[in-house]
User: Which sequence fits this backbone?
């Protein structure tokens, strides 16, 4: 009986759409390129640094599949995509502690949203886009590693 209760608790926790307190939500227009690269880079670096934070990739108007350049590029970089296919940004995702839109237009992505602009299109040059995203992800990781100072 105890095993059933534990299994139910684990399944309930895993199936919840509510973002965990240590979730970062990366968002791009179609959820198939920039947000996927950002989440993959973030998850790799956070794991290497032993941080509890993990990222997901979302899209405002999701494509039916990941961009081929992203699939190829991540594989070549030895990174794992955080999603098998693009996922729409949900109301629960908008409540995450950090929601980062990768795009040049201001869009409402929730109360903790911010926008990263001037990221080159992945479809035109994966390496250039990845490198621009990597710089921002590294800065974000450093912010998360440094506890806020209370005065």
Assistant:
């Amino acid at each position: 009986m105890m095993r059933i209760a534990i299994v139910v608790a684990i399944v309930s926790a895993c199936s919840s759409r509510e973002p965990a307190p240590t979730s970062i939500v990366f968002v791009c227009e179609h959820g198939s390129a920039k947000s996927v690269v950002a989440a993959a880079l973030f998850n790799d670096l956070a794991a290497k640094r032993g941080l509890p934070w993990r990222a997901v990739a979302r899209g405002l108007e999701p494509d039916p599949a990941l961009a081929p350049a992203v699939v190829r590029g991540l594989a070549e970089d030895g990174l794992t995509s955080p999603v098998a296919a693009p996922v729409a940004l949900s109301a629960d995702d908008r409540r995450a502690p950090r929601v980062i839109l990768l795009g040049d237009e201001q869009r409402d992505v929730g109360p903790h949203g911010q926008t990263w602009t001037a990221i080159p299109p992945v479809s035109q040059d994966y390496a250039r886009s990845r490198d621009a995203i990597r710089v921002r992800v590294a800065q974000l990781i450093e912010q998360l590693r440094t506890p806020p100072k209370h005065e």
Notes: Residues 91 and 110 are 8 Å apart (CA to CA). Strands lie at 23-28, 54-59, 98-102, 113-116.
